[in-house]
Design brief:
With 212 residues, the protein is an alpha+beta fold. It has one domain. Helix content is 16%, strand content 25%. The protein is built from 5 helices and 7 strands. The chain has helices at 59-62, 99-111, 134-138, 143-148, 151-156; strands at 8-15, 19-21, 31-32, 35-39, 161-172, 182-192, 200-211. The two termini are 18 Å apart.
Length: 212
C-alpha cells in the first residue's frame, strides 16, 4: 500500500548582494519575497574559505547558470481562480507531489506575477498577470508560515518584482537544527523596475525548506 504524500513550503531564505531572507527572524523586519531579512554576515578579514575542492566550490552554488528556466509549468486552470475568494482554496495534490514539483509549480505561478510601484519604470513590455497570481502562490505555503506572515505582508514583499525565473533548484543536505526538513538551493532571476525607463535583471540565491 502506498500512502499519498504532499509537500508544503514552510520557510524561504534569499541571498542578494547585501541581504539574506529568513522567515524565522524578527517579525518586525522588512520582508523580501515572503521572507524576512537580516544583513549579510561579514566574515572577519583573517577568515579564509577553502575553495579548492571541486565538489565544494563556491561557484557550484553561487554562479548564475545558463540553463533554461525551470518554472515553465503553466497551469491554465489557475486562471479561472484569479480574482476570486481564495480563503478556503487548497492547492491540488498533483502540484505538490514531490519537493521539486512543489518548488517548480510554486515559482511557475509566480513567474508572470508583477507588483509594480508607481515611481518605477520598466521600459517597453507588459506586466504579465499583475497581482492576480499572488493569492494562489500564498496557498502553497504551510499553515504555520501563513500564521507568521499575513497575505498583505506577503504581497508587499514582492513590491517592484515584475517577473521571476527559476533557474536552479537543487536539493542539499538538511540543517543540523532542522534535520526533518527538506532543503533546496534555488537560484532566481528577477526583473525589477528602476527610476529610468528600463528594467533591471537581478539575481537572488537562497534556500527553500519543505516538509511532508
Amino acid at each position: 500500500m502506498f500512502k499519498k504524500k504532499v509537500v508544503t513550503l514552510i520557510a524561504m531564505f534569499f541571498i542578494g548582494s547585501t541581504i539574506i531572507g529568513n522567515c524565522y527572524d524578527n517579525k518586525d523586519e522588512k520582508l523580501i519575497f515572503g521572507g524576512e531579512y537580516v544583513k549579510e554576515i561579514e566574515l572577519p578579514k583573517e577568515k579564509t574559505v577553502e575553495n579548492s575542492d571541486e565538489y565544494y566550490s563556491l561557484e557550484r552554488f553561487f554562479r548564475p547558470s545558463k540553463s533554461p528556466i525551470l518554472n515553465n509549468k503553466i497551469e491554465k486552470t489557475f486562471y479561472d481562480i484569479y480574482g476570486t475568494d481564495t480563503t478556503n482554496y487548497k492547492i491540488p495534490n498533483k502540484f505538490i507531489k514531490t519537493p521539486k514539483d512543489t518548488i517548480i509549480n510554486y515559482f511557475s505561478v509566480l513567474r508572470e506575477a508583477a507588483n509594480p510601484l508607481d515611481d518605477t519604470k520598466t521600459g517597453c513590455g507588459s506586466l504579465g498577470d499583475t497581482r492576480a497570481p499572488y493569492p494562489i502562490a500564498y496557498k502553497f505555503l504551510s499553515d504555520s508560515y501563513q500564521k507568521r506572515v499575513s497575505y498583505d505582508e506577503y504581497l508587499k514583499s514582492f513590491e517592484n518584482t515584475l517577473h521571476i525565473n527559476l533557474i536552479k533548484a537543487n536539493q542539499v543536505g538538511p540543517d543540523e537544527n532542522r534535520p526533518d526538513l527538506i532543503k533546496y538551493f534555488v537560484e532566481l532571476e528577477i526583473i525589477q523596475g528602476s527610476s529610468e525607463a528600463k528594467g533591471i535583471f537581478a539575481y537572488y540565491y537562497g534556500y527553500v525548506y519543505m516538509k511532508k
